[in-house]
Specification:
single chain; 438 residues; alpha/beta; Rossmann fold; 5-stranded mixed β-sheet; disordered N terminus
Length: 438
């Protein structure tokens, strides 16, 4: 039987741009764009509010399901996609803004010293479940907003296929997973504007379908494959690991958004497990600071053997994670997504913000280790090296920014859940400082 990806999977987090009584005033920042261009973007301030389920994760958020087609195919089949939204006071769904919010390409490239680097057309693959019918058009909107070169099917930069590598038939659409796809595509664009992008859509969010999609991504020439999903470990994962064992290709996996605890495929010894940080602008020499993001997954696998390149002594088996990048929704990426169940009207935007309708209709600020995984995959593509599973950073750790503070849970204060000098579970060896560690 397939192992469903329905347990301790990473959860996308979305930070909202509306307060309970209306639109929050937006701060404005100007930043340098690639190729010498300049563009002004709006950045939403931090908001006070809790996290609510996003997409199909919480049926209670879709009270109009009988009136509008809000319940996706995945929920009807009893399989749940995951996502979380940071709600402003009194709101239960993602707020929509008409212009960019959060960090954009300039901030991501500045924080991780990626500006001016090129992938020379190398391909990053994104593996997700179900279809986002608006993936290419929404990606075009994102890239145009930041002055990035077009990435389309027509110019050979973008390709969308099913889990078997064919252009059709594609899986059924799903609003929750579509948000995930938009995040992944925009994250690659932010970190690596000249990367080619291959989107492989699995028929369902279970191990058999997703691992078929991973194999397809490698077969079609990806140098890095990002997996922004996960499930609880069990006895089936060791056999499934064979689909992640692709020497020469970087396979990244999100460590999860539930705090201290281990998920698969991040626990596989054949992947680079991408943990999460909180990324803030600073006045230090780097220009940025990072701490452990409290939601990042980490810990000691109950099943997976320890790879030879891991030397930490507090875990006899595989330790999660390996490296990390920004994942906090409060310091997250602006993402454009317009696939929803109600259209483009002001009423639709209101229903989305109230959590009554799924999907999005504009710009949302997102986070989660679903952000860090495609960011790390993009750095691998920029580096262009042939890699053996997740080993390369362990022999090049001096080319990483060490994250030494913060915690993602309770583990007696050990490195498994606490940011410390050198290796720790939530952030691994650290975050990219250029491509030297990849």
């Amino acid at each position: 039987m397939p192992h469903p990806i329905t347990g301790r999977r990473r959860r996308t987090a979305v930070r909202l741009g509306l307060a309970a009584t209306g639109v929050v005033a937006l701060a404005t920042t100007t930043f340098a764009m690639p190729a010498g261009a300049s563009r002004t973007a709006t950045v939403a301030p931090n908001l006070v509010g809790g996290l609510v389920d996003f997409g199909c994760a919480n049926a209670a958020n879709h009270l109009l399901a009988k009136l509008l087609p809000a319940t996706p195919q995945s929920a009807r089949n009893g399989v749940t996609c995951f996502g979380r939204a940071r709600a402003a006071a009194g709101k239960a769904g993602p707020a929509i803004t008409k212009g960019p919010v959060g960090y954009g390409p300039a901030q991501i490239q500045s924080a991780y010293k990626l500006a001016g680097l090129h992938a020379s057309g190398r391909t990053v693959a994104i593996v997700d479940a179900y279809d986002n019918p608006k993936a290419e058009s929404d990606l075009a909107t994102y890239r145009a907003a930041y002055g990035l070169p077009a990435c389309t099917t027509a110019n050979g930069c973008f390709r969308k296929v099913n889990q078997n590598g064919q252009a059709s038939p594609l899986p059924v659409g799903d609003y929750g997973w579509a948000m995930e796809i938009s995040l992944d595509l925009d994250a690659v664009s932010a970190a690596c504007p000249d990367c080619h992008i291959l989107l492989v859509e699995a028929n369902t969010p279970d191990t058999a379908a997703l691992m078929t999609a991973v194999d397809t991504a490698v077969r079609l020439g990806a140098v890095a494959v990002s997996n922004s999903y996960g499930g609880v470990e069990d006895g089936t994962i060791l056999a499934a690991d064979a689909h992640l064992n692709h020497p020469g290709v970087a396979i990244t996996a999100a460590t999860g958004d539930g705090g201290y605890g281990v998920s698969w495929p991040a626990s596989s010894p054949y992947v680079t497990a991408a943990g999460g940080t909180t990324l803030n602008k600073a006045t230090n020499a780097r220009g940025w600071t990072e701490t452990v993001w409290s939601g990042a997954g980490s810990g000691c696998s109950a099943y997976e053997p320890k790879p030879a390149w891991q030397t930490d002594t507090g875990c006899a088996k595989r330790t999660v994670g390996d490296v990390s990048a920004d994942a906090d929704p409060n310091t997250g990426l602006g993402v454009y997504d317009s696939y929803n169940s109600c259209g483009t009207s002001s009423l639709c935007d209101l229903l989305i913000s109230l959590g009554l309708v799924q999907g999005a209709d504009g710009w949302i600020q997102v986070g989660g280790t679903s952000l860090s995984s495609p960011l790390v995959a993009s750095v691998y593509a920029l580096a262009g090296n042939s890699v053996t599973h997740g080993s390369y950073p362990y022999s090049h750790s001096s080319s990483l920014f060490d994250v030494t503070s913060g915690s993602n849970g309770s583990c007696g204060g050990s490195y498994l859940c606490t940011g410390k000098p050198g290796y720790d579970g939530p952030t691994g060896l650290g975050t990219p400082n250029g491509t030297g560690a990849f």
